[in-house]
Design brief:
It is a single chain. The protein is an alpha+beta fold. 28% of the residues lie in helices and 30% in strands. It contains three helices and four strands, in the order αββααββ. A hairpin with a 4-residue loop joins strand 3 and strand 4.
Amino acid sequence: MAQFCEPRHLDSDAVEIEVEGDLMHNPGRIGAITVKVALPVELDEDRLKALLRTVSHCTIHNTLTAAPDIRVHVETPVAAISS
């Protein structure tokens, strides 16, 4: 959001973002994520499309849509185990 707001001189501190997730079972996971963005100003159609492009290319969005490798490393006083 800051990447979108700053060049357009919009106050990003006034932006409200709400994130909700739908829990799934077997295996337990989040099945869907909804991000709601409330801006303090109205945007015309071109700026709204630009905002959606910016948000859909952010690091977190990219990470969630292209799952990263996850490595778990457990250390105990006796041994270290990695997966």
